[in-house]
Every structure is written in structure tokens, then in C-alpha cells.
């Protein structure tokens, strides 16, 4: 999880009659519905959806507490969740290897949580660095890595050397930031020439988004932006990335983990059905790992080797 809690970006302060798209800057946005009292707008040009106006820092800080990460408890539950995240991290690193041809080098993860992906990357030969806004998660990540490689903050607030990373990973993070173009511009500056950006984020083009509509489990107050393929491509190109690859994202989950997620973020029909299913399924099957593409997309792109003025 990653979040930028700095000043609210300019488009958040406009009136509903002049809502500009933060990706394509068009005055072509319309109000779709409200989520917990927060209006969600959509761009008729690129398809981006976003909360407008954005919740203030106090609201977001209250959400991002020590118990924000699903299932992160002590004992057996924590081990099971860590194993799931490690298995998903291995899938990400395998896909990254296919895209890059196996290059290692320096890897930065933005919103690294408890450090599961960084630990797997380190075991494969990467030199790893992490940025995490949650102090509790950053402490846990450094303990897992056995070194002080994770700093607390956002990529805007921490000091990082520009042009020094071969790969930057943002898994389940960009949807949290206030200014996605500013975020991508910062990533562009931190990457080496021809460096690779790797993004995982909820997708408006996913089957779950289409099926659930406004009840989609990814419509959360802390998710400030909702991308589809077109809006993601436009954002990356505007920030200076090329060779863009977008595909459905697969995660390694269990039925119990999915049920816990739907209990934390209730969805009509889906939540009670999953609760009933978990009562009927034997315990060993409830914790059996499955590969599932439910609501996200996996995105990769390469930094253009051209000099350009960054916004």
C-alpha cells in the first residue's frame, strides 16, 4: 500500500461544473455515483474514474492504521498471509524477468508493505530498496529483509537518488496517490535510462468491475483513482514511458483470504454468499492456494531515452 498525503492536487479544488480529468486534462467528466458520501467522477475521454473532491489527510490517515493490512496478525494467520504474498511476489518477478530478459540490478518498491516482494527479489539477486508510508509495515519489512532497506514515507517525501534504479515496482499503490501523473513523473526521474516500471492496480476492465458495477469491491475511499487500459496507457505515455504491456493480473489467494476481504469491504450478495460458503467448506480446503485473476491488471513499461521537460 502506498499513499501521497501531501497537498491536495489542483483538480480536487474545482467546482463540480469544471471537473478536469487528471490524466487527459479534458473537461469531459461526469458524476457517476457516491461512495460513502464521496462523489466518483468518470472521464468520457480516457475512461478514468476518480473521487472528487478527494478526502482530506485526516480521513485517509484514520483509514491507514496499524491494522490496515488484511489478515496481518500474529501466529498462524500471519504466516499464511505472508506465504500467499510471497507466492504472488514470485509470479510478479517471473513476469518481470520475461519482460526484461532477466536483468537484475537495483529494484525499488513503492508501497512495499511488509516486504514480501522485496525479500523474494533479494533472494534472486536484486539490490532492493523500499518506500512505505506505514511505520509498522516498514519495521516489519526491515525485520524480514535483515537490513534497513525500507524507509518510511512516500516517493515525494523521501530522499532517493534520481536515475539510479533499474526497476521500480508499484503494486496496489498508484490508486492511492493524489496525483498519478506527478507520481509517474517521479518514477521516471528515479529510473535509469531504459529502466522498467511495473504496476499492479485494480482494473475497470476486469470481469469483477463489470459484474459488480458500483458495488465493485475496489471502490474504496482510500482508492482515489480507478484505471482501465486506456487511461493507464495515456498516463504512462504522458509521463514518458513506452513499450507498454497490460494484461490481467493473477494473485495467489485462498477462499478464506477472499472471504476476509469481502467482510472488510462488504459487497451486496457476494459477502453473504462467501460467508456461507466458508461455513460449508472444510478448513483445509478454505486455506488451499488458488491462482485467480479477479479485479486487477499488471502493467509494464520502459523509460523513453529522450530528454524532455517533466511536469
Write a structural description.
Strands 6-5-4-7-8-13-10 form a seven-stranded mixed beta sheet, with helices on both faces. Helix 2 packs across helix 3 and helix 8 runs antiparallel to helix 9. About 40% of the residues are buried. It is built from ten helices and 13 strands. The protein has a single domain, classed as Vaccinia Virus protein VP39 (Rossmann fold), CATH 3.40.50. With about 300 residues, the chain is of the alpha/beta class.
Name the features.
311 residues; alpha/beta; Rossmann fold; seven-stranded mixed β-sheet; four-stranded antiparallel β-sheet; 13 strands; 23% strand; globular; disordered N terminus
Amino acid at each position: 500500500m502506498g499513499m501521497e498525503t501531501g497537498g491536495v492536487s489542483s483538480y480536487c479544488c474545482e467546482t463540480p461544473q469544471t471537473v478536469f480529468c487528471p490524466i487527459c486534462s479534458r473537461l469531459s467528466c461526469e458524476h457517476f455515483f457516491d461512495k460513502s458520501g464521496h462523489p466518483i467522477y468518470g472521464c468520457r475521454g480516457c475512461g478514468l474514474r476518480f473521487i472528487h473532491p478527494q478526502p482530506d489527510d485526516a480521513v485517509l490517515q484514520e483509514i491507514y492504521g496499524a491494522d490496515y493490512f488484511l489478515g496481518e496478525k500474529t501466529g498462524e494467520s500471519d504466516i499464511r498471509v505472508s506465504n500467499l504474498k510471497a507466492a504472488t511476489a514470485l509470479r510478479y518477478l517471473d513476469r518481470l524477468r520475461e519482460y526484461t530478459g532477466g536483468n537484475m540490478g537495483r529494484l525499488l518498491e513503492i508501497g512495499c508493505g511488509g516486504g514480501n516482494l522485496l525479500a523474494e527479489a533479494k533472494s534472486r539477486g536484486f539490490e532492493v530498496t523500499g518506500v512505505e508510508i506505514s511505520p509498522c509495515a516498514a519495521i516489519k519489512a526491515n525485520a524480514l529483509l535483515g537490513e534497513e532497506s525500507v524507509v518510511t514515507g512516500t516517493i515525494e517525501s523521501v530522499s532517493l537518488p534520481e536515475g539510479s534504479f533499474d526497476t521500480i515496482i508499484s503494486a496496489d499503490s498508484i490508486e492511492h496517490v493524489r496525483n498519478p501523473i506527478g507520481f509517474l513523473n517521479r518514477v521516471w526521474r528515479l529510473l535509469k535510462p531504459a529502466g522498467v516500471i511495473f504496476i499492479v492496480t485494480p482494473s475497470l476492465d476486469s470481469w469483477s468491475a463489470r459484474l459488480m458495477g458500483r458495488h465493485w469491491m475496489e471502490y474504496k475511499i482510500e482508492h482515489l483513482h480507478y484505471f482501465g487500459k486506456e487511461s493507464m496507457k495515456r498516463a504512462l505515455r504522458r509521463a514518458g514511458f513506452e513499450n507498454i504491456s497490460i494484461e490481467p493480473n493473477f494473485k495467489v489467494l485462498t477462499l478464506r483470504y477472499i472471504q476476509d476481504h469481502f467482510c472488510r469491504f462488504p459487497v451486496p450478495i457476494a459477502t453473504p454468499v462467501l460467508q456461507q460458503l466458508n461455513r460449508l467448506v472444510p478448513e483445509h480446503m478454505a486455506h488451499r492456494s488458488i491462482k485467480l485473476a479477479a479485479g486487477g491488471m499488471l502493467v509494464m513499461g520502459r523509460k523513453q531515452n529522450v530528454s524532455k521537460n517533466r511536469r
